Backbone:
């Protein structure tokens, strides 16, 4: 895992913890904006991608918080979860890793607030009484979790997704995931490839027409891992570029697509050290825009991983 060039953070005080967690995310984005010009692959950015590959179903805000507190984390869970579900105990003296967890409560179908907050808003929804509202996340609160390295006890069962750079087992599922992603994919023999030096192409379709949302071609090679990574990269293009017509923005999303391929590839055990994460394309972006890009990377990688896991 790439090292994190900034010092680790802790959130020991409950009085200031919420504000400090928000401020840490904002400062991370501001620092990234300041450094995108300088490096091919910012260690700061790659450190987050490494954490995101370990926690693909976490929001980008939570993986940012994990990366800032414990960049080497691989598996996190709450104190009781480690005890009750995995028969492991958090070791004495370990510092908690603080992330956001949703507060689940009845939600107003109109404004999304819980009954108590709903009474204080201008929302006049009254079609159904509050006790008939469905439950959902109404807010978020800091909760402590611990990485497996901070615990001791029974070993966890080995996962079978670590391909160690060999994508032979994963490629069929990655290719089959095209249907789940509403994408048409084709692997073309090298002798029949007509797209020059490119290893893959993605042609998005009119979003107002029928599916698929994109047509993908990938050049076949002996290196199955490389073919798999390119296929995932093109899936990311299909999901990220649909409906985006602004040429500069499409060029910026090239970095997003490569970042998605990096996260997904690492999740399945591929060596992604050659990824071209040229952050200079984001040089003019504001911190909020950077965070939106991280959100898209996080959600798109999670969608692709889920689609592959279903096969």
Residues:
């Amino acid at each position: 895992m790439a090292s994190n060039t900034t010092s680790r953070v802790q959130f020991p005080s409950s009085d200031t913890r919420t504000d400090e967690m928000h401020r840490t995310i904002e400062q991370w984005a501001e620092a990234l904006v300041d450094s995108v010009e300088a490096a091919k692959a910012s260690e700061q950015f790659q450190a987050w991608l490494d954490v995101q590959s370990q926690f693909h179903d976490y929001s980008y805000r939570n993986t940012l918080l994990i990366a800032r507190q414990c960049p080497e984390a691989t598996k996190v869970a709450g104190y009781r979860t480690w005890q009750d579900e995995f028969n492991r105990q958090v070791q004495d003296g370990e510092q908690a890793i603080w992330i956001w967890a949703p507060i689940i409560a009845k939600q107003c179908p109109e404004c999304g607030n819980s009954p108590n907050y709903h009474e204080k808003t201008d929302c006049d929804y009254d079609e159904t009484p509050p006790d008939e509202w469905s439950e959902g996340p109404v807010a978020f609160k800091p909760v402590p979790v611990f990485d497996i390295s901070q615990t001791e006890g029974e070993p966890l069962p080995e996962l079978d997704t670590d391909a160690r750079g060999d994508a032979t087992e994963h490629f069929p599922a990655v290719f089959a995931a095209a249907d789940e992603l509403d994408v048409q994919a084709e692997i073309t023999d090298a002798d029949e490839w007509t797209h020059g030096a490119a290893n893959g192409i993605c042609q998005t379709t009119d979003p107002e027409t029928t599916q698929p949302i994109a047509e993908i071609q990938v050049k076949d090679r002996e290196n199955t891992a490389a073919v798999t990574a390119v296929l995932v990269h093109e899936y990311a293009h299909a999901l990220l570029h649909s409906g985006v017509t602004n040429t500069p923005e499409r060029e910026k999303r090239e970095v997003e697509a490569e970042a998605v391929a990096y996260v997904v590839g690492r999740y399945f055990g591929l060596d992604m050290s050659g990824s071209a994460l040229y952050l200079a394309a984001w040089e003019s972006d504001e911190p909020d825009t950077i965070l939106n890009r991280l959100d898209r990377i996080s959600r798109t990688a999670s969608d692709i991983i889920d689609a592959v896991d279903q096969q």
Q: What stands out?
A: The mean pLDDT is 83.
